[in-house]
Amino acid sequence: MERLQKFLSECGVASRRKSEELIVNGKVKVNGVIVKTLGVKVSDNDIVMVNGEVVKKDLKEYYLLYKPRGIISSVKDEKGRKTVVDLVDVDSKIYPVGRLDYDTTGAILLTNDGELSNLLTHPNSNVNKEYVAKVKGFFKKNDAILLSKGILLDGKKTKPGLFKLKKYDKKTDSSYVKVVISEGRNHQVKDMFSSLGYEVLKLKRERYAFLNLNGLKSGQYRKLSLKEVKQLYSLKQKNKA
Ligand code: URA
User: What is the per-residue pLDDT for 236?
Assistant: First the structure.
């Protein structure tokens, strides 16, 4: 059971506040009866109508996409470029959870579950994200220590994470660095490297929480299992504690 205004907002009718107005103004019926008070609770078995039309919750859907380069992480792009949503063939209104830059590749979640999306992208969510960054030059041990401990970025210290040199390629004078961070600030990985003078040539997200790219090729996606969805919800609860 949940409050009628929450139910309406989850059905995509309107925001919770606007849904309250609809209720108070007598636009909402539950099982054929107009409801004008705000305390009423409903379940998925109740028939809810707004302005004479039945409203229902969309079934929740969850996808893991291996995002290719040159794709925008949003629902629509005003310049008409392809978006991550264009790559997933579903009818429901899914959207990406957080963002990867246009030129970043790798794991990104898409869903129409606003509650889970909010939990995972909340600044305190602490969801681990693992990247491999190819940076210009040799990545020094001391810089790995500094970045792992946290540095000032836009006046705020980054949370502790892991920055570790995997391989230095002499031929191209570039380093492959494993990065694990739990925040999701805009362009965070690139900005952290850049604050110490490193240019990021390539960036790939290998893992989002426990979800890696195993079995997926660039541009491919798969549905999450119920177990994985539950794990994502419980992850947040663990981190809350
Ligand atoms: N950090 C970045 O700088 N870019 C991304 O796409 C993801 C993390």
Answer: 57
- CB of residue 101 inside a 6 A radius of ligand 1: yes
Burial zone of 5 (CB within 10 Å; 0-12 exposed, 13-18 middle, 19+ buried): buried
Atom of ligand 1 nearest to the CA of 191: 3
**Ligand 1 site, residue 189, Cβ cutoff 6 A:** yes
Catalytic site includes residue 101:
yes
Pick the CATH number of 62-124+216-235 from 3.30.70.260, 3.30.70.580, 3.30.40.10, 3.40.630.10: 3.30.70.580
- Among 181, 187, 202, name the best residue to mutate to test ligand 1's pocket (greatest count of ligand atoms within 8 A of Cβ): 187
pTM of the model: 0.83
Cα separation, 144 vs 11, in Å, equals 46
